[in-house]
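Prompt: Have a read of the protein record below and flag anything odd:
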Amino acid sequence: MLKDITTQALQQEVKELLEYSVFPDPEAVERAASSYQTGESRLFGYEEDGLLVGVIGFDVEQDELTIRHIAVLPENRGKGYGRGMILELLLELQPKPDRVIAETDEETVDFYRNIGFEVYSQGEKYPGVERFRCIYEVEESEE
């Protein structure tokens, strides 16, 4: 079940999940968790049998939903939780966005590509690290 956990972003359980979607540095994790306290971005968690198995942090601006963070516990990856969080989020948001945007690295780009995102290389945004912009156009049937 997907639920709003924005106010719980600083809890250890949530920060442990966020760590999978940021550079694994305690300061970067703390910055990511704290960024949800400003009220500009939202953080949802996916729970199954009382266990938080995934998180998705996002901004909605006009007709675009931008994924800031998405993470699933390693033992639950490949089971559809990431895709499910994105789709459930699209069903819950009112008004519905026209597109979903994410920026990612080479390690995660296939996740987005496999669920229908168009992928565009941004080149080496950081030395030795290629970044990708992933865009998904929401169709009428998904609304």
Q: What stands out?
A: DSSP finds four helices and seven strands in the chain.
